[in-house]
Amino acid sequence: MNRAIRLRHMRENVMKESSIKVGVIAEQTGPLSFMGVANANVAKMVINDLNASGGLLGREIELCLEDGATIDSVAEAKATKLVAHDKVDVMFGGIYSSTRQAIKGPAVVKGKKLYIYPEQYEGQERDPLIFCTGPVPAQQVDPLIPWLMQQTGAKKFYLPSADYIWPHAMNKKVRQVVTANGGAIVGEEYFPLEHTDYRQTVEKIASSGAEVVFNTTVPPGVTPFLEQLYDSGFTKRGGQIVCTYFDENLLSQVPQAHAEGLYSCLDYYQSVNDPFSQKLLGRYNKLYPGSAQFTGGSACSGLYRGLQLWAAAVKEAGSLKQDDVIKALDHAKIAEGPGGPAEVVPGQHHVRMNMYIAQASNGSLKIVKNLGVIDPKEANVPGVSEFARMSAAG
Is residue 38 scored above 50 in pLDDT? Predict the structure, then answer.
């Protein structure tokens, strides 16, 4: 009996030593903690599910979870630890685009590690070691704005924004689509992420005659902005608010009246009624009751999708050799996922997925348009050697 126990312990130790390590950076503290805690939950759930099914390649998957604290320098340090100390096989995480860049330095540029970014973002990431599993402007701005202009007759847009890469790139796309559809941008402003006093901006919105506020301010600044915009009577005068990333987690952070009527455009909402999405939401809520909800704008859907696509790629590759995994990931598919099936568009490192337009109504987000499957329409990613030559050339 003692010999059997020793053998079992030896097998367990071998399994542990040869475990596949998955690094995840989630914002479990700081202004985005209401999103990051949910991301941490999703990572635990998916890794546990994979291990319950036998792991990958006959090996246990070990989750190496770190708190990014909603501070880019912290995320950078945690990425360095995960690559250099924990020796992870793949990296996931980040919400702000600036956090993606912070993780990219030590994980990709220095560490040469595969990195999967799960959040909706501005697009245009073309590093051969990075895959992006959330929506991009072609999947949000391109379908949403023409639909909104047609539905409401609105033509004048105002763009209050946080001052970092995502809002700048989004607004460039918004300007293109609005003007192409006969509209105009009547104002565009940028503020620090933690900005709280928007009274002058709200006055400018009123005096400009803006009919739509396309918001890219983000937490923590978005809450006071929505409050001050509401207090100004903008929506009571018939104004429309758009915030593409707005999901159920964020909706729970603001008074119902402040977001009433707001339009959002994402790959998943809790009201998506396909059987898999409903079952997944029910499982998550049972495992992780509380305020950190499974949502789309918070990167939960992109993280679930990314983990499952990576797992499918590892299975196809039959090894953890990174070049082989990347080759398989370039055309990976999942038949079921939050919001529907998804597949990586070959050559683009971005995902073809279902998209939805939702509107805040009485404290929930109700889908008003199922857009169906939409391509990311991103440029092809160069190979590793070609990318290195491009980077060296400046």
Answer: yes
The pLDDT value recorded for residue 394 is 53
Residue with tokens 């050799």: 321
- Under 8 Å between Cβ of 165 and 150: no
Q: How far apart (Å, rounded) are the C-alpha atoms in residues 102 and 104?
A: 5
Residues 131 and 7 both lie in one domain: yes
Q: Which range (14-23, 261-270, 361-370) has the least confidence? A: 14-23
- 391 contact partners, CB below 8 Å, separation of at least 6: none
Among the listed residues 391, 376, 387, the one whose alpha carbon sits nearest the alpha carbon of residue 121: 376
Last residue of a domain, one of 266, 301, 332: 266
Same domain for 245 and 346, yes or no, is no
Which stretches within 85-215 are classed as H helix? 97-104, 137-152, 165-180, 199-208
358, containing H or E segment = strand 351-361
Q: What's the pLDDT tens digit per position in 161-177?
A: 999 999 999 999 999 99
Neighbours of 56 (CB within 10 A): 20
Considering the domain architecture, whether residues 312 and 385 belong to the same structural domain is answered as yes
Q: What is the pLDDT of residues 323-341, one digit of tens each?
A: 999 999 999 999 999 999 9
Q: Give the domain CATH number at 255.
A: 3.40.50.2300
d(CA 64, CA 67): 10
Domain residues for the domain of 280 are 2-135+273-352+379-393
Task: Specify the number of domains making up the chain.
Answer: 2
CA distance 50 to 307: 10
Give the DSSP letter string of 196-231: ---HHHHHHHHHHT-SEEE-B--TTTHHHHHHHHHH
Regarding pTM above 0.85, the answer is: yes
Which tens digit of pLDDT belongs to each residue from 351-384? 999 999 999 999 999 999 999 999 999 999 987 5
Residue 23 near residue 88 (C-beta atoms within 8 A): yes
- Do 96 and 110 lie in one domain? The reply is yes
Of 351, 349, 324, 323, nearest to 338 by C-alpha is 351
26, burial (CB in 10 Å: exposed 0-12, middle 13-18, buried 19+): buried
